[in-house]
Amino acid sequence: MKKILRAICLVFIAYQSIAQEQKLNVIVFGAHPDDCDIDAGGTAILYSKMGHNVKFVSLTNGDAGHHEKGGGELAKIRIAEAKEAGKRFGVEYTVLDNHDGELMPTLANRLKVIREIRKWNADLVIAPRPNDYHPDHRYTGILVQDAAYMVIVPNVAPEIPPLKKNPVFVYAHDGFKKPNPFEPDIAVIIDAVYDQKIYAMSAHESQFFEWLPWTMGALDEVPEGKQERLDQLSQWRINKPNEKTLECLKKWYGDKALNAKNAEGFEICEYGKQPTDEEIRRLFPMLKK
Q1: CA–CA separation, 82 vs 94, rounded Å?
Q2: Three-state SS annotation for the chain
Q3: From CA 202, how far away is CA 219, in angstroms rounded?
Q4: Both ends of the chain: CA-CA distance in Å?
Q5: Which residues of the chain have pLDDT under 70?
Q6: Nearest CA to 175 among 94, 231, 244, 268?
Q7: How far, CA to CA in Å, does 3 sit from each of 14, 15, 16?
Q8: How buried is 168 (Cβ within 10 angstroms: 0-12 exposed, 13-18 middle, 19+ buried)?
Q9: Alpha-carbon separation of residue 120 from 48, 125, 280 (angstroms)
Q10: For residue 17, what pLDDT is reported?
Q11: Phi and psi (nearest 5°) for 98?
C-alpha cells in the first residue's frame, strides 16, 4: 500500500510540474499606472482566465498627472488604484518609484526592467513602441528594447540569474504614423471580456474621471453615477479594429474576425525571439484554430 501511495504522489508531483511548465509568464510594461490596462488589458484578462501568469509594471508612479494633487499624495493614490485594478484584471501590478514626467532611458532604469523580466521568467514581453507624444511613453519603449537582449547576458545584473532563452517582445497598438506606422502581427478579440476590462480600468479614478477629462476640457461632462461612468469610459476607450487589425484578425480567427467589435493588436519587435506562427499560437493560446 505504501508503494502505491508513493507512486500516486510521484505522479501527482510530476503532473503539477508539467502543468506549471505549461503556464505562460507574460509581463506588460507601461509608463504610468493605467497604461498597461489600456494597451493589453483585455488580452491580460484572457490569459488570467486560462490560468496563465500576468504582471503589469508601471515605470513611473504617476505623481505628476493631475490638476489638483501632486507629489507623494498623488503617488499613493495612483499606486492604490493600480493595486485595485490588478485585482480586477486578475494580474500582479507593480509600480516603480520613478517620477512621472521625468523617466529617462538610463542604465539604472534599464537594469530595473531587466530585473523585472528575469524575476517573472517572462515568455512574452509587451511594451509601447518608442513612438509617442509623451516622453515617458517613448522612453518606456526604449528601455524595454534595450533590455531585450541583455536579459540573457549573465554579467548584466548578475544578482538575478539570466533567462535561459530570450522572450518574444511585442509592441502594443498605437496610432502614430511617423517614422513608421504600427503593423499588427497578432490581434486578439476581446469582446468576451471588454466589460471587465472597462470595469478594471475604472479603478484608476483619478486618471479617467479627473485628470484626463480635465486635460480635454471635459471635466464637467463626467457623470456622477458608477454605471454612467463605466458607460462613458466604455465609449471613450472602445477598441474597434481598424482595417489592418481586421486583416490580422482574419489570419488568426478566420470568419469569426468579421464580427469582432473590440480587439487588441501587437507587433513583434525585431530585438527578441522571432516566433513562428505555431509559436505565436502557443504564446497566445486564445487564438484557437
Answers
A1: 8
A2: CHHHHHHHHHHHHHHHHHHHHHCCEEEEEECCCCHHHHHHHHHHHHHHHCCCEEEEEECCCCCCCCCCCCHHHHHHHHHHHHHHHHHHHCCEEEECCCCCCCCCCCHHHHHHHHHHHHHCCCCEEEECCCCCCCHHHHHHHHHHHHHHHHCCCCCCCCCCCCCCCCCEEEEECCCCCCCCCCCCCEEEECHHHHHHHHHHHCCCHHHHHHHHHHHCCCHHHCCCCHHHHHHHHHHHCCCCCCHHHHHHHHHHHHHHHHHCCCEEEEEECCCCCCCCHHHHHHHCCCCCC
A3: 16
A4: 45
A5: 1-21, 289
A6: 244
A7: 16, 18, 20
A8: buried
A9: 15, 10, 19
A10: 41
A11: -110, 145
Counts of helices then strands in the chain (DSSP H, E): 11, 7
Cell numbers linked to 227? 454605471
**Which cell is 172 given?**
502594443
Q: Which three cell numbers stand for residue 264?
A: 487588441
DSSP state letter for 209: I
pLDDT at residue 5, as a whole number: 52
The pLDDT value recorded for residue 288 is: 74
* pLDDT of res. 289: 62
pLDDT at 188: 98
The grid coordinates of residue 13 equal: 508531483
